[in-house]
Amino acid sequence: MAVVTFVSHDGEKHEAPLEEGCSLMQVATNNAIPGIDGDCGGEAACGTCHVIVDPAWADKVGPSGPVEEEMLSMNPERQATSRLSCQIKASESWDGLTVQLPEFQM
Amino acid sequence: MSSARAVVVGASHAGAQLVTSLRQEGWSGEIVLVGDESVLPYQRPPLSKAYLAGKCSLTELAIRSQDFYLKQGIECLDACVEEIDRSARQVLLSTGDRLSYDALALCTGARPRRLRAAGTQLDGVHYLRRSSDVQRIREDAIPGRRAVIVGGGYIGLETAASLRALGLDVTVLEAADRVLERVTAPEVSAFFTRVHQHEGVDVRTSASVEALVGDHRVREAVLASGELMAADLVIIGVGIEPTTELAEAAGLAVDDGILIDAHARSNDPTIVAAGDCASQDMPRYGRRIRLESVPSAVEQAKVAAATICGTDKEVTALPWFWSDQYDLKLQIAGLNTGYDDIVLSGDPTADRDFTCYYLRKGELIAADCVNRPRDFMTTKRMLGQGTAVDMAALTAEVAV
């Protein structure tokens, strides 16, 4: 089973199984990962599912889209590999994926 | 595991968040989520959009998977709560069972306000709140049919956009002199009217419906002006009313919503409430407000769960809202109640993206952002943190 690791701001690790086709936000909420709210349900409308993809995985996961980019652009915790996890379609081939969570969701 | 039991009434956005937050806040006892829709809690906003358009299934709209509730030891009960017995700390279920509780949360939501007109019982006349409503609308929404939408609020306009995409003829009837009258500035109303007209929707304002007529099935709408409007289906979206009968019958304080303090507590300290059914003291605004929004329901549910678990939390987040119509993403930060001035960035009479900033006594209080996620996030962050806002800088930056 492919596993993704969410690393909280203070270094706490939470693992969750990757489900093909699910968004990474859904994976997080289905596994009660603290720090990912996903208030809008995955419409890139709220910005509360921000994750920072491990740079080693950035190419596989891909870059943010235009709306996502605008949503992230004003975020003080934004980093080069920041994404909204609702906009990432998970793949079971991503076993070992690691993403960091920001200290605050917007 | 402790033997305490938390009962959450209403498998809504608030209910789904509340049971989750209870576990995150360390509630180790039983959790029972009682809902009467026979499905796991689902995202309601897409009902008038992607779900109506047939682009997603109800399973895809589930807020959390079945597996989540199993793993978290949350029991989802398919039943109605008929009565709350506060002295015995029990709820009476439609199944005849009594369920005792140590903590009770009311997330009973809201129901559509009924249209005061004859003929609303006819076939082909719909309200839109639950997935079952939309399943019925979908059966009726055949391309080429004439749909009349009563109410030019967010639900009405979102539905109009979805039905146009499905190939129906659509008319929107709004009783006020502009759409979105209750919630936005005239400039924003004019923008949405223009876009809907451009998309082929017949938008009629100052148009109230006196009756819906037909033999068995609706055939036409009769307007107060006497005009007859042919209709194969009618969708009524004239607002919602909080579902508070259960709370009222139990003697809880209710006034357009179950009254709750900043900690989401009702006047019974063992009972909290969250979501559309609740009217809350909001420290940010210094008054009591009943909000109809998913983010607010989620926020209140988190606070309510903390209160049950003995953690001190208050609702501090800025209220915000969103609406999708056609290619337009409207995001609203803050409440514009009492605004005395607006500042526009972009031209709502010509563009498909702009922001309308609302000011009161020179201070920014809210913004309607159409296809301007950056403006939305900026405003949400500044208002949320209470940062002083330099309007000149804000509008200059976005004008680039």
Automatic annotation (TrEMBL), chain A:
What is this protein identified as? 2Fe-2S ferredoxin
Identify the PANTHER family for this entry. 2FE-2S FERREDOXIN-TYPE DOMAIN-CONTAINING PROTEIN, FERREDOXIN/ADRENODOXIN
Report the source organism. Prauserella flavalba
Q: Which Gene3D superfamilies match?
A: 3.10.20.30
Q: Name one GO biological process term.
A: P450-containing electron transport chain
Q: Fetch the Pfam families from UniProt.
A: Fer2
Q: Which GO terms describe its molecular function?
A: 2 iron, 2 sulfur cluster binding; electron transfer activity; metal ion binding
Key words, A-Z: 2Fe-2S, Iron, Iron-sulfur, Metal-binding
Q: State the InterPro entries in the record.
A: 2Fe-2S_ferredoxin-like_sf, 2Fe-2S_ferredoxin-type, Adrenodoxin-like, Beta-grasp_dom_sf
- 2Fe-2S ferredoxin-type domain residues: 2-105
Q: Does the keyword Flavoprotein apply?
A: no
**Where are its TM segments located?**
none
Automatic annotation (TrEMBL), chain B:
**Signal peptide (residue range):** none
Which keywords label this protein?
FAD, Flavoprotein, Oxidoreductase
Task: Give one Pfam family, short name only.
Answer: Pyr_redox_2
Carries keyword Transmembrane helix? no
Q: Which cofactor does it need?
A: FAD
Q: Which GO terms describe its molecular function?
A: oxidoreductase activity, acting on NAD(P)H
Q: Where is the Reductase C-terminal domain?
A: 320-395
What does UniProt give as GO cellular component?
cytoplasm
Q: Where is the FAD/NAD(P)-binding domain?
A: 6-301
Question: Is Cell membrane given among the entry's keywords?
Answer: no
Protein name per UniProt: Pyridine nucleotide-disulfide oxidoreductase
Source organism of the structure: Prauserella muralis
